[in-house]
Design goal:
Distance between the termini of chain B: 49 Å
Strand content of chain B: under 5%
Order of helices and strands of chain A: HHHEHEHEHEHEEHEHHEHHHEHHEEH
Oligomer: heterodimer
Radius of gyration of chain A: 20 Å
Number of helices of chain A: 16
Radius of gyration of chain B: 19 Å
Largest sheet of chain A: 11 strands, mixed
Distance between the termini of chain A: 23 Å
Number of strands of chain A: 11
Strand content of chain A: 5-15%
Strand order of the largest sheet of chain A: 1-3-2-4-6-5-10-11-9-7-8
Shape of chain A: globular
Helix content of chain A: 25-40%
Chain lengths: 467, 68
């Protein structure tokens, strides 16, 4: 297991076994991934700030503890990265913006605390769209992350570095955030697994907000099992996060390996066939996945809900209003210090009337109640994520066109757990994906269905060739 | 609530009214596009389906704690 290429594609689960058995040194593992990023990340910009010195410090500590028999669990000695809106004590949290270049974190975010307590090896801060909304941008202090499958293409966002780094084999697990789809978009574009958990399941304390009532912290990994393992570590009630759910957390790997016979799967096709017309390769991928689940014994049928446009208009009205409340002071004093994309997207909240915001939240409750009612006759729903494969990153018109062509925002409105899962590749060699969505706190069941699908497809074993 | 009549001069005045006085002409063009897009989204919200009893998603409940 000493070849760098092998270590690059090691899963968290497999690494945990090797590390625990003392067949793999955390220092060797960290050094291999550091070297890989040093060789290739100049072409992908996944890291905003790589921290090899901190990684080796963590790795040496983990090695000493494991050698003494003090194994902390499946994340002990495992490398990870944080989207650069998540605080890590002593490092700047920049949000990829000139505005916050000197914003040094005084404490760890709760999610950081948990990963450090689990013995993870912190590899660095990962690129984001500016303030988790404006990107991909070329007018910021740091360049935008690029797609590991083809560096000329967009890697999605706003957790762009988290998706790019995971897909590129720079690390096996990363933290992202999701307000309108920002974990699932890079997961979809980069061909990795991305979970936006139930609203409130993971503490947001220490994470720079974009829109309080829609923000979620989530996980990006290359396999379903790894994603479940990572969510196990970071989920849980936080009394100091006003949005935190006081609900039992954990056990997300418990159903992995169980079959899906009798699981009731609703296919939400009108999102990607009527409300928006997805690229045929995307639509075919989802339909093929539905067929595969049916072959595995699931009870699959088509369902419907409110039009996609209603969810998206509701999401954007709330998102821009809450975000502008956060950014108004900087917009008055330092508008020139934003990149153009973030400035324009944030300014959309400047003149939303109070009654429009309140009405959007009233519609949110109606949409949420109606959506959750679907689960009286269903276990999970599958639908589209992005409507198009990743476009070229240097084509602003294509970025603008595809940016809003997605069906992730509905589940920020409803707070439902939603997992992006690869469904194959386009003829151009770019990843395709779907979402698996469940009722609140049903993450374990979503992982079970995703894992069953993953086991009968080959996408997880495919990796990009980096330049 | 029309979406097509807003001009750069309109948004310059609206911006100044909330203290956003440092916007360049380029920024004002961005603000104009952003405001038009926001108004179009607002127009697409089916608010006529709401009844007076439909409450916002944010309405909260208090826990009783140990009090009587």
């Amino acid at each position: 297991m000493s070849a760098m290429g092998d270590l690059a594609w090691l899963t968290v689960a497999d690494a945990a076994e090797l590390l625990r058995a003392k067949k793999l040194s955390p220092v060797e593992y960290a050094n291999a991934l550091i070297a890989r990023a040093e060789s290739h990340d100049k072409n992908y910009n996944a890291y905003l700030r790589a921290t090899p010195e901190l990684a080796l410090e963590d790795a040496r500590r983990a090695e000493g503890e494991i050698m003494r028999g003090d194994w902390r669990g499946p994340f002990h000695g495992v490398p990870y990265g944080l989207k650069d809106i998540v605080d890590y004590t002593g490092l700047p949290t920049t949000a990829h913006s000139k505005i916050l270049q000197g914003n040094v974190a005084k404490a760890d975010a709760v999610v950081t605390q948990k990963l450090r307590a689990a013995g993870g090896v912190f590899m660095g801060k990962l690129s984001t769209h500016e303030f988790a909304i404006g990107g991909p941008s070329f007018d910021l202090p740091w360049p935008p992350a690029r797609n590991a499958w083809n560096r000329d293409h967009f890697c999605g966002g706003s957790s762009s570095g988290s998706g790019a780094a995971t897909a590129a084999g720079f690390l096996p697990a990363a933290i992202g955030t999701d307000t309108g789809g920002s974990v699932r978009n890079p997961a979809s574009m980069c061909g990795v697994i991305g979970m936006k958990p139930t609203y409130g399941l993971v503490s947001r304390r220490g994470v720079l907000p974009l829109a309080f009532s829609l923000d979620h912290v989530g996980t990006l990994t290359r396999t379903v099992r790894d994603n479940a393992l990572m969510l196990d570590l970071i989920a849980g009630h936080d009394a100091q996060d006003p949005g935190s759910a006081n609900h039992a957390a954990g056990g997300y790997t418990a159903q992995l390996g169980r079959d899906v016979k009798g699981i009731r799967v609703g296919v939400l096709r009108h999102f990607y066939t009527r409300d928006m017309q997805a690229d045929p390769e995307i639509a075919d991928g989802i339909d093929a996945a539905a067929k595969k689940l049916s072959e595995l014994g699931a009870e699959v049928r088509e369902i419907s809900t409110a039009p996609l446009g209603e969810y998206i208009a509701c999401n954007r009205t709330i998102l821009t209003s809450e975000a502008f409340a956060i950014h108004e002071k900087w917009m008055r004093e330092r508008p020139q210090d934003y990149g153009a994309l973030a400035r324009e997207r944030l300014m959309a909240g400047a003149f939303v009337r109070a009654s429009d915001y309140v009405n959007a939240t009233r519609l949110r409750r109606k949409l949420t109640d109606a959506f959750h009612a679907l689960f009286s006759e269903l276990d999970v729903i599958i639908t589209s994520s992005s409507m198009d494969p990743a476009c070229r990153i240097d084509d602003p018109k294509a970025v603008e066109y595809t940016y809003g062509r997605q069906s992730r925002a509905p589940f920020n409105i409803t707070g439902s757990p939603a997992l992006s899962v690869p469904t194959g590749f386009s003829k151009g060699g770019l990843p395709l994906a779907m979402q698996i969505v469940g009722k609140p706190f049903s993450e374990a069941l979503i992982y079970r269905v995703a894992h069953a699908y993953e086991q009968v497809t080959e996408w997880v074993s495919m990796h990009p060739t980096l330049v | 609530m029309t979406t097509g009549n807003l001009t750069e001069d309109d948004v310059r005045k609206m911006a100044a009214d909330i203290g956003m006085t440092r916007l360049t002409d380029g920024h004002l063009q961005e603000l104009l596009r952003a405001t038009q897009a926001a108004r179009a989204r607002r127009a697409s919200l089916p608010t006529d389906t709401l009844t007076p009893a439909d409450e916002p998603a944010h309405v909260f409940s208090l826990t009783g704690g140990d009090g009587q």
